[in-house]
Design goal:
By secondary structure, this protein is α/β, with parallel strands linked by helices. It has helices at residues 11-43, 54-67, 74-92, 105-116, 128-136, 211-217, 247-255, and strands at 97-100, 122-125, 142-146, 165-170, 173-175, 184-188, 199-207, 222-228, 233-241, 259-269, 273-275. β8 and β9 form a beta hairpin.
Length: 283
């Protein structure tokens, strides 16, 4: 006589399994906190400003997407990890997030809360320049400003030696219907060893800027442009692949009839990591 198949687990059994997992997750988070305590003692992070490490965080989020599967939505698991990472970063060395709300409050606030949670203080500003200035006078705060548009050339303030720089572009993971999809630059001071240089950002001032010149540059770079009345031209924030260098941009400007007045490297960040509609991640 064949054996009867085993009975399926009861609801009570499954709920006990969930409770055990919840307890283990909490235990691991506390264990992570104990390691952070030791990290603070070793690095003396509390004395040197923000512990934000964009290169490490971008890599962590890429690996999270690559290994994720199952019914838990990627939006949820990404938001959980962002809160964990940002909160433990804040514990290492408290910092504030200064957000430029001049181009719209709700999307910028959503981005800040999604990426940094509610423990990190949120400070509103009504211009990108004000947010950057606040960071320039802090030990380790972060500024969030639009990565795709601007009303003033706020990035000029990043040109000087010792000034804050663009250190990241959010979201680290891009996909359709992302709950915090607003493209945002993070501006701050971090150690050179923490920077990721897959994409360089340049402050460029040109005369003779027009639609034809913009079309000539569009295959080579992402550009934010605002009028620069002082030189009858434009101030540009140019994002280019770090392995390309600035020379192709300079050559394209000149070939299109524009004059390069000045250029300065004002930061760098990780490449976009995009999840296509079919859910298979790719670079």
């Amino acid at each position: 006589m064949s054996e009867m198949p085993p009975s399926p687990p009861s609801l009570a059994d499954l709920r006990r399994e969930i409770d055990d997992i919840d307890a283990e997750v909490h235990r691991l988070l506390m264990q992570r906190g104990e390691i952070i305590d030791r990290l603070i003692a070793v690095k003396q992070t509390q004395e040197v400003g923000s512990a934000f490490r964009p290169a490490r965080e971008a890599d962590m989020m890429r690996r999270l997407v690559q290994r994720h599967h199952g019914i838990l939505p990627l939006d949820t698991v990404e938001s959980i990890w962002r809160v964990i990472i940002a909160t433990f970063t804040y514990v290492q060395a408290p910092f504030s997030v200064h957000a430029d709300l001049s181009l719209g409050e709700s999307a910028m606030r959503d981005s800040a809360r999604f990426h940094f949670g509610f423990t990190v203080p949120f400070v509103s500003h009504f211009s990108a320049a004000a947010a950057v200035e606040a960071v320039a006078h802090s030990k380790g705060d972060l500024a969030l400003v639009s990565a795709t548009s601007g009303r003033t050339p706020w990035w000029i303030e990043l040109e000087a030696a010792g000034a804050p720089k663009i250190i990241a572009r959010l979201p680290f993971v891009e996909r359709a219907d992302h709950p915090a999809a607003l493209p945002v630059f993070v501006v701050s001071r971090v150690a050179d060893s923490a920077m990721v240089t897959e994409v360089e950002t340049w402050s460029v001032r040109v005369s003779g800027w027009n639609a034809e010149v913009a079309r000539a540059l569009s295959p080579l770079a992402e550009i934010v442009a605002v009028p620069d009345t002082a030189i009858d031209g434009a101030a540009l924030l140019v994002s280019i692949p770090g392995d390309s260098g600035f020379e192709p941009i300079k050559a394209a400007l000149i070939a299109a009839g524009a004059s390069l007045r000045s250029s300065a490297l004002v930061g760098s960040h990780a490449k976009r990591y995009t999840v296509p509609p079919n859910g298979v991640p790719r670079r």
